[in-house]
Amino acid sequence: MKLSKVFAFSALAIAMSSASATSWMIGDDDGYGAGIADNANHPFAAGYDGRSAAEKVATDGAQYTDTYSTAHPGYSPQTGTVATFSFTGLGNGWAQGSMWFDMADFQASTFGATKVKFNGIDQNWAFNDGYPTTKVRFFDLQQDVLDTINSTHELIITIDRNGSGDFYGFDYARLSDTFAGTQPIPEPASVTLLALGIAGLAAARRRKSV
């Protein structure tokens, strides 16, 4: 057996045996309904509404995506001052996880910070990205948040304007069951398989040379 075949077979086994991440998306990653690239500047003015018909009638939080001046009385296309993203039916067994947001134009030091909770647990969202910046952010979930997911089988994120005068928006919210940047790690069995394959090839070559 050629060395390339050994490596190919072993790589396939590693890929199949490695843990894969699962994610849940609220919103649709379409650049705020306007095709804005990740981490690019936006052209929005207060009251911008790029939602699809389905997003406008959603109840899981998608109704708060693809807008600007989100949950800002007098400007926002939504009512109220609290945006809620609801990830339900998550089950238990959560040992790690991360949240991802594509967010626009947070300026906490200028207009005041929002009050954000993950399952009732306070999060620090005093961001100062500035106008007209969009930014994709991720947050590894802390153990206390993971514990609440395991007990309630859901993650409820509330973003309370809290008197802030800031205009901001979201393209999407995405939950993953791995930490951000986590790459699949070969399981011991796969590594052993690779080692055995290489050892077998070496033995075969020695027999041929005798």
TrEMBL record:
InterPro entries: Ice-binding_C, VPLPA-CTERM. Residues 184-207 form the Ice-binding protein C-terminal domain. Pfam families: PEP-CTERM. It comes from the Bacteria. Keywords: Signal. Residues 1-21 form the signal peptide. The keyword Protein biosynthesis does not apply. The keyword Signal applies. NCBIfam families: PEP_CTERM (TIGR02595), VPLPA-CTERM (TIGR03370). This is VPLPA-CTERM sorting domain-containing protein. It comes from Undibacterium parvum.
